[in-house]
Every structure is written in structure tokens, then in C-alpha cells.
């Protein structure tokens, strides 16, 4: 089946639009290296575009009308956006859903210790990573520390030009003979991913003098003490900005593109509707915890989205348990998540005619899952045909793929969770190289084409 290269289909004007969009997206990646930062960055943006918080409408008892723009936030880590359409919500919504968490290292609750003149923060890695990729790299610390009095202290160190950075050490090559004999999964053990954070001992201190020096800096800079780590959420992420890649600047190399590339393009697609009143309510859901199974109060398995939708329907005079169930079942969704880009260096892991390629447009994965489609949402043929019609009628370049060879690939998204409501869902997103590595690569062409495809879906979908 013939595929198209996006770059070859575009005019110079379209390519310039894509380049400008890529720069905005890179700014978003730099500003949002954690879930909280992503939500904060997007809320600041969408409020300028006329979005009003759902809680404000509830407090005032205001009834939303077609064209209104509404959002809700859950624990500062999830965001749902609605642009109200003409049809009653019980007839369904057009939904884009992505996750904003990414693989990383989290600081433990009792993390600070000293060993042989070095101060460390003990970490626990989050999500699926190749642990050996995360050593001997400059790292930054992002997050919050909440003190007993309720004061929240924001932490972001390692990103500014004059900030210090941190690192996990690796064994020097001269002594690594035994290490190099280990399997890749064992080269670096999880408990060895401890972050070096200091080296100067505090004068006139007998025990743990380096650790005491670090605590002194934390007290002076953030007014926090060692016990405050108990109520902290601190994430260790690669330090540095998103960069253009290639002599032709065609690609983006950055941390966290799985799945912030789909989160940003989804949110921007909703903003691209501007003041247009669509037939059906358009919705964008951005959630946490996908990398560890979508669990917890901020994961897709929570009732946050369902509850927010129920509150919105109540304001509109539509709510009943049956109307909510009908509305969710009548909705259609793109589970916006990345796909594994074909990598010629590892060609034997892909089935080439069913792989996604950088530069060939937005990717639809009819199913994900592991090996025999285990744990997968498998979209039906009717819905796939509906999606094809939308994309072709909107002149969107798209491709279909699966995640590697049948007995090699595995993966998951939030699609199966939303499918529990009985709605039609298919996985769709951007092709990525180096997935789950500290630095992931995407094509500017795919990023922009995917955003255009999301806009087409919001405007035209509905079965």
C-alpha cells in the first residue's frame, strides 16, 4: 500500500507553519517537564483563550451554552477541556485523550544520605526505562515540597544557564570488564540510580558533613528541612532544552515527547477551533500515571473525567445517570499516544509494511497490546472506516502501524479504559524514535500533521 511523505506534499507556506508550530511545541516541552508543570502551562494558555474553570460556573450556577469553553483540573496533574457543541451532550462528544507523565526518576521519601564524601538523593525510577541510559547524564530536579503548614515550595533546578546540574555516576571503562559481561537489564541496578547532589563538607560538623552542607543550602534557598522530603514530589529529569535535530532542522530531540507531543497537539487542536461552534462538544483529556498503568486518583482509571462530565451536564440541565452513560457511549475518541518509529538500525524488530515512519504523517494503531493483542483495545472496522473518511476528506497524511513484530512488540495506552464506556476508540499519535530514552526524537512534519488531523476529528467525527 503506497504511503506519502508529508514533506513532499506540503507547500512552502505549510512547511513554514509547521516550523513555527514546532517552536511553540518545543517551548511547551521546556516549560512542562512534569505533570504539574504541563497543567500549569496549559491552564495559563487556555485562560487567555477564553476558557473558564468548571468550578467557577458551578459556584455561580451559570448554564453553559454552545461555543462556551470550560476546563477542570484534578490535583494539579490532570486537565480536561470542553468546547460546548450544538447537540445535547447525551448524544456524545468528540474526545482527544493523552497522558502527560513520562518516564523519569522520583526522589524517595527518605532520600538524603552521605557516602565517602559525596551526598546522594535516593531515587525510584518511574515507568519503563533502560536504566543504563540514565547514568552519566546532566539531570535536573523539578517538583514540589509541601511543608506541614501547607506551604507549597516549587523546585526547578538544573535548567537555567547558571544552575547546577546533578548526575548518576557510572563505572569507568577501565574497571568495567565484569560490568560489561552483564545483560543490559542488569548493567545498572535500580538501587544504583542515586543522584549525586553535593561534595563540600560543612565546617565544624563531625558526622555527615557533606549532607549537612546540602541541607544548609536547601534551608537557605527553599526554607525546607530534611523531614520535608516526606511530603515532597520531586522528579529527576534530563537537564536541557528541546533542540532541533538534523542539518535540515527537520526533527525535534527532547525529553518527555512520550506523550507530551500528543498532549500538546491535542490541546492545541481544541484551541484551533477558536470560536467555531461544532455540532458535538469537543473535548481534550490530559491525564497522569499512564506509564505505570493509569492507576490512582490522577490516572485515567479514576473517575475524574466522568465526574467532571456529570457536573457539566448538571449545569446544562441534562444530567441523569442514564444520560451520562448514553453520552459516554455515544462519544468517539482518539487515544492520542505515540507509536514506535521504524529504526533502520534495529530493522529486525519491525514488520516494515506495518510500521510507522518519521515523516509519513499521523499514525493510527488499530490495536496495541502485547504479542497476541493482550490488554489491547482493538478498534472495529466501522470506526476505522469513519476515521479514514475524515482524514481523506481533510487532506490529512496518515499511516497505520503496530508496535513492532508480533512476538516482539508490546505497549499500552488509555484506549482500553475509555472503551469500557462502550465508545469507539482508536490509538492515534506521532511516530517517535528513542521512546522512553532521556532524549526522544520526532519529525516536525508528523507533529504538525497530527495536530491538523486532530482538528479534523474534532470538527467532523460522530457515528
Features:
463 residues, 20 strands, nine-stranded mixed β-sheet, Aminopeptidase i, Domain 2, Aminopeptidase, alpha/beta, 12 helices
Description:
The structure is a single chain. Helix content is 29%, strand content 23%. The protein is an alpha/beta fold. It has two domains: 6-102 and 255-460, Aminopeptidase (3-Layer(aba) Sandwich), CATH 3.40.630; 104-238, Roll (Aminopeptidase i, Domain 2). α2 (12-31) packs across α12 and α7 packs across α12 (444-460). It is globular. The chain starts with 5 loop residues before the first helix and ends with a helix.
The description of the largest β-sheet is: 9 strands, mixed
Going by helix content, strand content and strand pairing, the class is alpha/beta
Helix content: 25-40%
Number of β-strand runs: 20
What is the CATH topology of the largest domain?
Answer: Aminopeptidase
Quaternary structure of the protein: single chain
CATH homologous superfamily annotation of the largest domain: Zn peptidases
The CATH C-level name of the largest domain is Alpha Beta
Q: In whole angstroms, how far apart are the ends?
A: 27 Å
Strand content: 15-25%
Whole-number mean pLDDT: 94
- Poorly predicted runs are none
Count of alpha/pi helices: 12
How do the helices and strands line up, and which of them pair or pack?
Elements (H helix, E strand, L loop, with lengths): L5 H4 L2 H20 L3 H14 L3 E2 H7 L8 E6 L3 E6 L9 E7 L4 E12 L2 E9 L12 E8 L5 E6 L26 H4 L7 E4 L10 H14 L9 E7 L4 E3 L5 E4 L2 H16 L8 E7 L16 H12 L5 H9 L2 E5 L2 E2 L21 E4 L15 H13 L4 E3 L14 H5 L4 E6 L1 E2 L7 E4 H17 L3
Parallel strand pairs: 1-2, 4-13, 4-14, 14-18, 15-19, 16-17
Antiparallel strand pairs: 2-3, 3-13, 5-6, 5-10, 6-9, 7-8, 7-10, 11-12, 12-20, 16-18
Helix pairs in contact: 2-12, 7-12
